[in-house]
Design brief:
Blueprint lengths: L1 H12 L2 H15 L4 H8 L2 H7 L2 H5 L5 H4 L8 H14 L5 H16 L4 H20 L3 H16 L4 H15 L6 H13 L7 H15 L3 H5 L2 H15 L4 H6 L32 H7 L1
Helix pairs in contact: 1-2, 1-3, 1-4, 7-8, 7-9, 8-9, 8-10, 9-11, 10-11, 11-12, 11-13, 12-15
Amino acid sequence: STLAYSLHALAEILTVEQVEEDLCPIFDSFFRDVDEVKIGILSNLARFLKVLQLSTRRTYLDKLTYLTCVDNQRNWRFRFESANQLYELTSLFSSVDVGDYISPLTFGMAVDKVADVRHAAIKALSGCYSKFNSENAQIQTEVFLDDCHRVFASSQDWKLRQVYINLCESIYKLHVDTPDQYALRFLGRLLSLKEDPVVNVRLSLGTFIYQNLINNEFYIDLSDDWRSQIDECLQILLVDRDRDVRASVGGVYEARGTPLSSEILNDDSDSSIQNNTITLGDEQQNQS
């Protein structure tokens, strides 16, 4: 178990040849081990793979599913660590490999029942998007956007619609798109959530827009049509029936004179995500 946690440190002081000849067999035996040992190599997976030649590193892509698969489903920290490592791995592979292997695994983790796992996966998904953008990988970008819209923005589960807002914020903060390109890819779906039936979704939307998308260069550089759509969205949220939503977009936060609404205000239990099976890009085409 101790060796599993320190294998990456050994790899960083040996030659590539020594690592591939002597350490890779040990590494391979560990990820077929019990969860307690497996999390040792998982927590430093990117650092270990970074040492290897690309050709050797790529042989581990097929094994990622097995490596990030946990025996005990209640062990959410294992899934959390997996999502963190998937983010680190996006810089070690090509956009094609990221699209084929890393992005599908990350989508699976973004629908996890545990909020911390979803948040780590959101960061990893924004890493995938950044990789596709930097290599002008048009096919991978289109598949990614389609999956984002279908799995998150159009979900029946409010927590996944909230994931879409959080992902849009994470991608916005990368500053890898021009304002109009970002708007074209994300803003239409994002603004359509302004009348979502769940208050937490509208609250997340209002907070993101008010704190990031107005009174700045992004807003100034947008085309008139997108600016007017943002303005309309803010006007609707300013008269929202929930005072927290109104406050999120700069409305006056008045004292609550009526009992709490029956809407979900702060549901921290993740019980509503019942089924985390999703269909991504190519699978969808194969099934249709």
